Amino acid sequence: MAVESEPPRALNIRDVAREAGVSYQTVSRVLNGSDRIREKTREHVQSVIDRLGYRPNPVARALSTNRSRTIGVLTAHSALYGPATAITAIEFAARDAGYRLSIANLRSGEPESVRASIDDLLSHAVEAIIVIAPQQEVLSEVGGMSVDVPIVALGPSGERHSMAMDQIAGARAAVAHLADLGHEFIVHLAGPQNWTEAEARMVGYLRELDARDLRVRAPLLGDWTAQFGYEAGMSLLRMPDFTAVFAGNDSMALGFLHACRELGVRVPEDVSVVGFDDIPEAAHFFPPLTTVRQDFVELGRRTIRMLLAQLAGEDLAQDPLVPQLIVRASTAAPRSN
After folding, report:
1. DSSP codes joined into one string, 206-250
2. What does the record list as coiled-coil region(s) (predicted)?
């Protein structure tokens, strides 16, 4: 009867030390980036680590150093372009700084769900937490919790320990572009109003109209989806009393473009359309979409920079990032001009 062989034992730090001919403490110093070691020794030990393919056990390292090098991320709706892109950018920035992410997705915005997700992250010994859940009720619940690690929220600008895109400025740039082209009747397809980003973009829309003394009309409250944009377009375009649309995101703009095409409304000849986010597909809509681009890579860098400052006992203030208007073929002067 054949006897099953035992699986090979995983390498540990003492195996690396034995192969390199040094103490395991020296290997540990190399792994932790200590400056208390000669460069020649560091290079030798690192070459052995690379040759053996050794990877430190994160749990063992956390126990030995009392540091997990892990940042928790609390997120909701992470499948949407904005949150998903922000998480990716933050992960790359964290990795560059020697950290890894532990992600908890909210089941809902209810207080019990928020507290359970935070407790789950803390159980993984995270050193800090980033909140990418732009619903106001989530931010309020997190803000009221007593947590012993630093927290940075991607939320409204002006809040302490928050990193933000200036959504109001981005929305104003979109509306200003349409107004500069000569549009006086501009409709806004807004996102869900429990989202701080949707609220800020709506505020920007209203402020720019007011600053230019243009007619203000109530925004249509949507849900970020192309389906809502399509349904809104099918309704609005039956009796159009506007010449331009500012959609709260590119997906709703896409749905509106679909309605235009189905009803024979030409873009931009009959109506101009502006989105928000500049998703990768926006340049390939028909016509290519004028939109507002958010620099998520820089957002990730600044978020990690702010967290590292807090971990070092510093309070680093960061100005909001200002989104960039990207002009493409979906906007033009209204026909009357």
Report:
1. HHHHHHTTPPP-PPEE--S-HHHHHHHHHHHTTS---SEEEESSH
2. none
Structural domain includes residue 98: yes
Extract the tokens encoding 139.
């931010």
Residue span of the structural domain in which 25 resides: 13-56
Does residue 153 fall inside a structural domain? yes
Strand (E) or helix (H) holding 58: helix 58-65
Rounded mean pLDDT for each run of 10 residues along the chain, 337 residues in total: 58 88 86 80 90 72 66 88 91 91 91 93 93 87 88 71 89 98 98 93 97 95 97 96 97 98 97 97 98 93 90 84 97 85
Asked whether residue 50 falls in the same domain as residue 74, the answer is: no
Strand arrangement of the beta sheet that strand 128-132 belongs to? 100-105, 70-75, 128-132, 151-153
Q: Which of 312, 332, 331 is nearest to 97 (CA)?
A: 312
Q: How many domains does the chain have?
A: 3
Tell me the CA distances in angstroms from 195 to 22, 25, 138, 139, 169, one per residue in order. 55, 50, 10, 10, 17
- What local confidence, expressed as pLDDT, does residue 173 receive? 98
H or E element that contains 128: strand 128-132
Q: How far apart are CA 91 and CA 289, in angstroms?
A: 29
* Cα–Cα dist 273/177, whole Å: 11
Q: Are residues 182 and 287 in the same domain?
A: yes
C-alpha 156/C-alpha 315 separation (Å) is: 18
**What local confidence, expressed as pLDDT, does residue 50 receive?**
87
Distance CA 5, CA 2 (A): 9
Together in a domain, 181 and 279: yes
